[in-house]
Design goal:
Blueprint lengths: L1 H15 L19 E4 L2 E8 L9 E5 L3 E8 L5 H4 L4 E3 L5 H11 L13 E4 L8 E7 L4 E6 L10 E7 L1
């Protein structure tokens, strides 16, 4: 038994030789929101949607004129035909209910973006569970802009605002 234990310990020691693990640590300051970061090339934002028809946040922020890179994740498991989600940033004054009705009529062939996106500043593709899309766009003029999920029936619960500071 003792010989078996010694041989097992020796085998584990030999098998781990030459392996090095690199561990990267990221500093996080108290009060820092780790879903938004300012980079030399702009602002990186992160947003997710789940199978309960919810975004993980309802407010995003950026500076006017800078490049915004938004990473949108569908953290649920359901297929996009059943519980698809996207991020759609609307132009000021867009009637969300009217837009949502037009999106439903536009259907899957238009990726639920009506009227060739006339009322849209930026949008991701429609995602199913486990999928991610990254988009980059220039922040519009200062103001508060609505964002929604345009999948039929989702905009009532899946909405928020992007505040653009001067």
């Amino acid at each position: 038994m003792r010989t078996y234990l010694i041989m097992t310990a020796l085998a584990l020691t030999i098998s781990s030789c030459g392996e090095t693990k690199k561990e990267e640590k990221t500093a996080l300051k108290i009060g820092q929101n780790n879903t938004e970061s300012v980079t030399p090339s702009g602002t990186a934002l992160a947003l997710s949607g789940n199978d309960m028809m919810q975004f993980d946040k309802s407010e995003l922020m950026a500076q006017a004129g800078e490049k915004i890179t938004l990473t949108f994740r569908h953290v649920g498991q359901l297929d996009r035909r059943i519980m698809g989600h996207n991020f759609v940033l609307l132009t000021p004054g867009t009637d969300i209910t009217g837009f949502a009705n037009e999106a439903a009529a536009a259907g899957e062939s238009a990726d639920w973006i009506p009227n060739d996106g006339v009322q849209v500043i930026a949008h991701t593709k429609m995602l199913g569970g486990g999928q991610t899309d990254v988009i980059t766009f220039e922040a519009p003029e200062p103001g508060v802009y609505d964002f929604i999920c345009s999948f039929p029936g989702h905009s009532g619960m899946m909405r928020g605002t992007l505040t653009i500071a001067p």
